[in-house]
């Protein structure tokens, strides 16, 4: 699928502590406006450029869209993540941020998917090689190389990638993040399916998707089949597809929207 006209969106180098703060602020505040004010104050001493459209404003926008203002189709995933957040260890919060960034930003999902595929074939990846692969999908625009570089630099900061001795070459971190908690593991698989935009993936791909290269996910086909989050559907003779079920919260919102629409039409 080509995204040559789509907005990249993810074009900032983010620190995990900023993502942690954005998620914590969203848990503490019901209104997005209050989260935005608190984030501005927090980033004030951490990100230079306070002009409108400057670095701080753009960084805040990425954090807001990830945790405080998710798209409608990502909202249920975000609500579930916020419930998991306080019970997840600091080292495993990366899985929550990773899932939300994948679901919120197709560019991040595509870049990490292509990076994961390359790392399955070779021990290290050149930044230029990854940029060429991403450009195949997102087109020849000046913003693509910068955005790829910022994704990679973020992953280095998160210790998902390590920088080699040769400039512009990166390798996978030696230690994978173990996602042992079943609820977190299932949530991360859900994030992959939501990020795919098809809302349905083969079970094997959902669990072992290239975008999950920093993680060892403990979910299995049997745990997906038992989970109320998913419906497993036979597809063809030898393949099972996993589909994300609608959460009750989404069903309730849809019913309310239809009800309000009907009243307004009277």
In short:
The protein is mainly alpha-helical and 266 residues long. 55% of the residues lie in helices and 12% in strands.
Give a structural overview:
- The structure is a single chain.
- This protein is mainly alpha-helical.
- It has a domain at 177-248: Orthogonal Bundle (Arc Repressor Mutant, subunit A).
- It is built from twelve helices and eight strands.
- It has helices at residues 16-28, 32-43, 55-68, 75-84, 93-104, 106-121, 127-138, 143-157, 182-195, 203-207, 221-226, 248-265, and strands at residues 124-126, 161-163, 169-172, 177-179, 200-202, 215-217, 230-235, 239-244.
- A hairpin with a 5-residue loop joins strand 2 and strand 3.
- Helix 5 (93-104) packs parallel to helix 9 (182-195) and helix 6 (106-121) crosses helix 7.
């Amino acid at each position: 699928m080509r995204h040559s006209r789509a907005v990249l969106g993810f074009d900032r180098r983010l620190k995990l502590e900023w993502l942690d703060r954005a998620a914590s602020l969203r848990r503490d505040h019901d209104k997005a406006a209050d989260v935005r004010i608190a984030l501005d104050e927090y980033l004030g001493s951490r990100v230079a450029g306070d002009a409108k459209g400057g670095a701080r404003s753009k960084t805040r926008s990425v954090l807001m869209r990830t945790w405080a203002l998710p798209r409608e189709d990502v909202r249920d995933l975000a609500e579930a993540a916020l419930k998991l957040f306080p019970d997840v260890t600091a080292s495993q919060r990366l899985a929550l941020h990773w899932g939300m960034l994948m679901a919120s930003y197709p560019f991040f999902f595509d870049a990490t998917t292509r990076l994961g595929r390359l790392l399955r074939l070779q021990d290290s990846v050149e930044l230029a090689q990854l940029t060429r692969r991403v450009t195949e999908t997102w087109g020849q625009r000046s913003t693509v190389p910068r955005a790829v570089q910022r994704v990679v630099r973020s992953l280095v900061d998160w210790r998902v990638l390590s920088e080699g001795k040769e400039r512009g070459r990166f390798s996978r971190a030696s230690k994978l993040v173990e996602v042992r908690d079943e609820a977190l593991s299932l949530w991360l698989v859900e994030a992959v399916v939501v990020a795919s935009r098809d809302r349905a993936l083969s079970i094997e791909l959902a669990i072992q998707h290239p975008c999950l290269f920093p993680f060892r996910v403990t979910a299995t086909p049997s745990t997906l089949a038992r989970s109320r989050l998913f419906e497993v559907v036979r597809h063809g003779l030898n393949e099972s597809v996993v589909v994300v079920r609608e959460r009750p919260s989404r069903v309730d919102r849809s019913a309310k929207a239809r009800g309000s629409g009907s009243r307004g039409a009277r």
